[in-house]
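Sanity check

After download, print the first record. It should look like this:
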Amino acid sequence: MLLAYHSRRLRESSIHSFSKQYLQHLAKSVSAVRSGLEASIADPEENAVHVKNAKIVVESRDDTKLQVRVDLEGEDTRLVFEKVLTNLARAAPPVPGFRRQKGGKTSKVPKDFLLQMLGEERVTNFVIQEIVSSTLADYTKKENLTVKGNKINTIQTAEELRSSFVPGKEFGFSATLELEILTTETSSQ
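Expected structure tokens:
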């Protein structure tokens, strides 16, 4: 009973106790808007997670818009999930009964307990944010694309993405990127 009380208090207080830097990164990465998920593409080096084996296919393209399909293998979703869970746990307040090691890592807290403490839906939201933001940031850098306002939109809603995500299983989404048209000014003499 005491453990349940502390778990509930930690879950409630952890909202306010995450490390400022990690939450700022996530806040500028993604937010739910209208029908799809809107994400900001940050510098790929700033991403907390890197997905190496994402398969990205261009579905349609014109001068101002690019629609892509991104698919990840189960192993990649599992790795991203574990990395995000570890980062969130590191930023959360200490867990009663578990000591913190140097560097802020809480050792040997069962992942199921961490997931319950932090909230499965919340962790899943962070994982999806990281996947969308990191895969498309890497893609735009690799293809040398400039996205208008560094904003992208998924075709699927946040709820659809959340319901289709299971760690260790394949995951995919479609997104639209509004491209900036780089014009070169020519001077007439």
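If your output differs, re-run the checksum step. Summary of this record's structure: DSSP finds six helices and six strands in the chain.
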